[in-house]
Amino acid sequence: MTPPPTTDLYALDEDLDEAQRALQQRVRSWVTGTFVPVINRYWDQGDFPMDLVKEVADLGAFGTSIDGYGCPGLDAVSYGIVMRELERGDSGLRTLASVQGALSMGALDLFGSDEQKKEWLPPMARGECLGCFGLTEPGFGSNPAGMETRARREGSDWIIDGEKMWIGNADVSDVAIVWAKIGDGARSIRGFLVPCKADGYNASLIEGKYSLRIARTGRIRLDGVRLPGEAMLPGTESGLRSALTCLDQARYGIAWGVIGAAEACLEEAVRHVEQRVVFARPLNSFQMIQGKLADMLTRLTHARLTASRLADLKDGGRLLEEQISMAKYANVRIAQEIAATCREMLGGVGILDEHVVMRHMINLESVATYEGTSDIHRLVLGRWLTGVQAFH
C-alpha cells in the first residue's frame, strides 16, 4: 500500500525524541479535536473561545520554556512544536500563547523580581490569569523608542499616563506589562507591572478586523494610574533593549508557528487536487499543479530547516537578534506564499470556511506586520551586512 503523502520530506520529525513526539501529538490532537470544530463560529463573531484558555495552558503553551514557578521549562524545539501545532489551528490561537508566554510571562521571567515572579507566573502558567504586553503606541509601531507613555514619581509611587495600541489580550487580561519613559531617550524606558483593575486603566477591543479575527486585540489607556514603587520590573535598566528582548522570544515562536499554518494549507491543497476532476483527469495529474506543489514543499522544507537550526542556536545560548529577524521575515513570507497559492489551487471553494486556506491567508497578513514588519527585519539584516544603521 502506498503511504499517504507527507510534507516532511527531510524526515525532520524523526529527529524528535519520545517526549517531543508525545507533546506534538497531544497538542495536535487537541487542536484538531477541540479547537478546529469551533473556530468558524468564533471567527464569525470576532471572538476567542475563552472557556478553552485553561485547556491551552494544560498543553504547556504558557511559559513553555520558562524554568520554575510552575512553568513547563521545556527546550527550544518543544517550544517551537507547541507554537507550530497551535498555528495549524489558527494564528490567533498561537498569538494568545505568544502574548501570554513569550511577552508577558517572558518579561516577568527575564526582568521581574522574585516576588513578582512568585505572585504572577504560577497562575499565568495555569491559565488562571492572563497578561498583555503594552509596548506599541498609536503613533509609534516600528519606532517604539518614540513612545509617549510616561511614568513619573509621586512620593514613593509611580504615576503612569499614556496610550497603547494593537495589544493582544488587552481587554481580557488581569495584568499588563506596560513600557513607559521615566526620562528622555530610549534608555529611559522601563517596564511596569500594572494590575488591570487599577484605577485609570482602561482597555477596549479593536473592532472591524478582517484578519486575526479570533485574537482579542485592543487598545489601552492609562490615565494617572498609580502604582507602588515596586511595580517597576527591576531588571529593565537597559531600556528599550529589555522590551526588544521579549519581542525576540515572540518572534522565535512566530518563526515556528507559521510553519503550522503553511502545513495545514499545503496538506489541504494536496487532498483537494487528488479529489478534484478537471477535463476528465484528477487535478493532481497536471504538470502545472505538480510544479506548484513541488515549489511549496521546497519552500516549506526551507522554513522548517531554518526553524530547526534556530532552535539549536537558542538551546546553545548562541541565538542572535539577526538570526531571529531572518527567520521571522523569511518564514512568514514563505507561509504567505504557500497560503495564497493553495487558495488559488482550490479555486472557488477556496474562499469557503469549510476550508482552512482563506483564513490562514488572511491571518498571515497580520503576522507579517506584528513583531516587526518584513521591511524592519530586512533592515536588521542590512545593518548586519553593512554595519550601517538605515532605520532613520
Notable traits:
single chain; 392 residues; alpha+beta; Butyryl-CoA Dehydrogenase, subunit A, domain 2; Butyryl-CoA Dehydrogenase, subunit A, domain 3; 3 domains; four-stranded antiparallel β-sheet; 14% strand
Question: Nutshell version of this structure?
Answer:
With 392 residues, the chain is α+β, with helices and mostly antiparallel strands.
Whole-number count of domains: 3
Number of helices: 10
Mean pLDDT across the residues is: 95
CATH topology of the largest domain: Butyryl-CoA Dehydrogenase, subunit A, domain 3
Please outline the major beta sheet. Answer: 4 strands, antiparallel
| CATH architecture classification name of the largest domain | Up-down Bundle
- Which bin fits the share of residues in helices? 40-55%
User: What's the CATH class of the largest domain, please?
Assistant: Mainly Alpha
Give the strand tally: 9
N-to-C series of helices and strands: HHHHHEEEEEEEHEEHHHH
Decide which structural class fits the backbone.
alpha+beta
Give start-end ranges of low-pLDDT stretches.
none
CATH superfamily of the largest domain: Butyryl-CoA Dehydrogenase, subunit A, domain 3
Terminal CA distance reads 60 Å
**Strand order across the biggest sheet?**
2-3-7-6
Cα Rg: 21 Å
